[in-house]
Amino acid sequence: MPTIDLLTFPDAGLSTLATVADTLGVANALASMHAGKRADAASPVFGWRLVARDPARWQAAAETLACRCQPLPADDAALGDALVVPPLHFDHISTLEQRLALLEWERATIRRYLDAGRLVASSFTGVALLAGALPAGRRLTVTWLIAGWLHGNYPQLKVVAEQAIVSSGNVLTARAMEHGVALTQRLVGRLADTRLARTLGQAVLDHPSRGESTAIWLRSKPAIRTSVVLRARRYLQQHLHEPFDLAKLAAAASTSERTLLRHFTKTLGTSPLQLLHRLRVERACHLLEVSTLSLTAIAEQCGYHDMSAFRRLIRRHTGQPPGAHRRAHSVRAELRG
């Protein structure tokens, strides 16, 4: 029976681990039904357990997830068949870096699973912890929240931000927390069989892409145009820190450059580059309001390396320079008011 180890630590996203445990429970029930047995009498296909530096602290969580909690494995013989690394909670990049510095034991554990050839899966901000243990050249996906930080700190890794889930050797990553069920489905397919994984997907996943080609065929041309623009917008949101590349954008939207420009003009009345600048400014304003990042760091995360241009754009959008906008609209300012 394959065992999935669920890594936990302070500030870990336990809801993600609960999603994994629940989905594996569904997989066990489906396997039981396929075998023609009662669910309570069949041998489970999967087991799972929490692993933590301080197991006593997580006993209540283990009871909630219907499993046990054990210390971080000390040798390869104690490793499970896969390790799930949950997201980390943090309020800004400096906090993330402080918390990562306290998780060296957990990072060493991740390396042990990777070196032993075990599967390692992570989603959302948990990829920040996983990235420090990955060898150069590995592909992964990550939320836009830390895409710029990850690119700057781990340039040897290949970020494929346009994909919701990326498989690279024995590493599986998901861009968002909402992909936790689909990520677990991938683990089931790798550890059990593809038939069970397919059945699991049909049972618990909505599959918004199912029948998409038929739906697009039946829709009117304006709807097709809208879908192209939505794909392009999604790509721009995930690549704000990168230089604008019309060819890459058109490829991500599954159309030609000329058609993409035409759709943008008809649907939004603007160009892709103009939309990119607007998205960058909106992201910058958000970071000014909720983070303590420096103006230079915010500009770089939003794709601006010329501070004078960055200041002009913020002033044009808000009527204030970046520093004044932060002083007027930050969370701390609201609390003072």
TrEMBL record:
- Show the InterPro entries listed in the entry: AraC_XylS_family_regulators, Class_I_gatase-like, Homeodomain-like_sf, HTH_AraC, HTH_AraC-typ_CS
The protein's superkingdom reads Bacteria
Keywords for the protein's UniProt record, in alphabetical order: DNA-binding, Transcription, Transcription regulation
Q: Which residue intervals are annotated with compositional bias (Basic residues) in the record?
A: 317-330
Domain (HTH araC/xylS-type) spans 230-328
Q: Where is this region: Disordered?
A: 317-337
Q: What is this protein called?
A: AraC family transcriptional regulator
List the source organism: Cupriavidus malaysiensis
